[in-house]
Amino acid sequence: MRDLIIVIAKALVDHPDNVSVNTVEKEHEITYELTVHPSDVGKVIGKQGRIAKALRTVVTSAAVKESKRVSVEIVS
C-alpha cells in the first residue's frame, strides 16, 4: 500500500525525491502520512481537493482485503 501511494505521488510532483510515506498503525486503523516538498502540496491536493480525494479512494479500494480502516493524510 505504501508503495502504491509513493508511485502515484511521484507522478504528480516536481520534486519526486522529496516524496515519503510514514505509516502509523493503531488498533483498527492505518494512517499513511504523505510528505512532499512544500511547493508540491497544491499539486497533490489538486483543485478543490479532487486529486487528494481520488488518491484516498484508490487506497481505500486497494485496502479492502485488510480488516482495518485506512486513511491518507497529506503533510507538507
Automatic annotation (TrEMBL):
Q: Name one GO molecular function term.
A: RNA binding
Assigned GO CC terms: cytoplasm
Which InterPro entries does the entry mention? KH_dom-like_a/b, KH_sf_prok-type, KhpA
Query: Where does it reside?
Result: Cytoplasm
User: What's in the keyword line of the UniProt record?
Assistant: Cell shape, Cell wall biogenesis/degradation, Chaperone, Cytoplasm, RNA-binding
Q: Which domain of life is it from?
A: Bacteria
Q: Which SUPFAM superfamilies match?
A: Prokaryotic type KH domain (KH-domain type II) (SSF54814)
Please give one Pfam family short name: KH_KhpA-B
User: Quaternary form?
Assistant: Forms a complex with KhpB.
Q: Which family does it belong to?
A: Belongs to the KhpA RNA-binding protein family.
> NCBIfam families given for it?
PRK00468.1
Protein name (database record): RNA-binding protein KhpA
Q: What is the lineage of its organism?
A: Bacteria, Bacillati, Bacillota, Bacilli, Bacillales
